[in-house]
Amino acid sequence: MFFKRLNLSFKFIDLKAVVRTNYCKPEDLSWSEIPYPQVADDEVLVRIYYTSINRTDCANLMAKPFIMRFVLGLFKPKKTTLGTDFSGDIVELGKDSKCFKVGDQVFGFKDIVAESQAEYAVFKERDLFLIPVGLEKDIAAASLEGAHYAYSFFQLADIQAKQKIFINGATGAIGSALLQFVKTLDVHVTASCRTEHMDEVLEIGADKVVDYTQEDFTKLKDKYDVVFDAVGKSTFGKCKPVLSANGIYISSELGPFIQNVFLPVLTRFTKKKVFFPIPKKVEQTIPFISKMLATGKFKPLIDRSFELDDISEAYQYVMSGQKKGNVLLKIS
Ligand SMILES: NC(=O)c1ccc[n+]([C@@H]2O[C@H](COP(=O)([O-])OP(=O)(O)OC[C@H]3O[C@@H](n4cnc5c(N)ncnc54)[C@H](OP(=O)(O)O)[C@@H]3O)[C@@H](O)[C@H]2O)c1
């Protein structure tokens, strides 16, 4: 009843959203007012509490790499409101909705823009997942983008008990989630970060930490069964000496000359291999993340939270490549 009454009133006002009508730099970004979204029969209206500002948002903002324009819009973005993930609650159901009720607390992630950096957004039911009971909405929003990609890395490596694993960039959104997923297995993990973050990386599960400002991990004497470069700062060639005889290299970036796309084919019949992670569907990743959150095996690292007025500064900070874990945008 409360929400129905609310619907009647809030539909006459515009809502705040982070909008870009052309691909642009973070410096050119601000929030605008946009008309209230219409809820189609097969859609659900969500009031957004938090979204993260992440590296996927930055890529969507600027359409970089260029190849993204084939999905986002060749000359202009097809979807003008930014945002890929969210936590919030359902305030209105389309006529055909079957799975949720008004008041349900939900979260979700869509890499090719969920238009969630706004006070309200519409979604298909298949895009929504219930937030684990008792989980704070900021934690929920911080558990999506990095953890979604981390799951794809984790699955691809097919890690076996007692293996030795190296994670480069264990304080990134992907790296910090990946470290916690990998540590659910009986393995030994060495992870890298800067000096100030060493204790935190040990706290989230690393057995050993390498300070990348003091030591180049590709020159370590130890050998690893899997090297995950979660910040894409290395190459397979440089990591070969630290890979065990049948070691696997996985990077979050395409690498110089987009080599990480081709190397999996070239190394197919060699002992040391490169795997390229194709992101899994959210139907696979978010239920896994929810289970990890609910069982306390995963807790996202949160760097800081920005308000809508500071949206340009927030994107600039994320683009610096030095955020720790996840950066949030508080909406409601
Ligand atoms: N393949 C995909 O589908 C996909 C999707 C999303 C993102 N990405 C890419 O994946 C990468 C990681 O994304 P993210 O959001 O997890 O990153 P992020 O959170 O922006 O990573 C920031 C962290 O990187 C660490 N770092 C910076 N330079 C480093 C170095 N030389 N060695 C080790 N660590 C270093 C920093 O650690 P300290 O603070 O400890 O210095 C910082 O905490 C980005 O390059 C992004 O473009 C790929």
Structure, explained:
The chain folds into two domains: 2-142 and 301-330, Medium-chain alcohol dehydrogenases, catalytic domain (Quinone Oxidoreductase, Chain A, domain 1, Alpha-Beta Complex), CATH 3.90.180; 147-275, NAD(P)-binding Rossmann-like Domain (Rossmann fold), CATH 3.40.50.720. Helix 5 crosses helix 6 (173-182). It is globular, with a radius of gyration of 21 Å. The longest helix has 13 residues, at 145-157. The two termini are 20 Å apart. With 332 residues, it is an alpha/beta fold. The chain is built from eleven helices and 15 strands. The strands form three sheets. Strands 3, 4, 5, 6, 7, 14 and 15 form a seven-stranded mixed sheet that branches. It has a six-stranded parallel sheet with strand order 10-9-8-11-12-13. The protein has a two-stranded antiparallel sheet with strand order 1-2. Helix 6 (173-182) links the parallel strand 8 and strand 9. NADP nicotinamide-adenine-dinucleotide phosphate is lined by residues 54-56, 146, 149, 168-169, 171-175, 192-194, 197, 212, 230-233, 252-253, 279, 321-324.
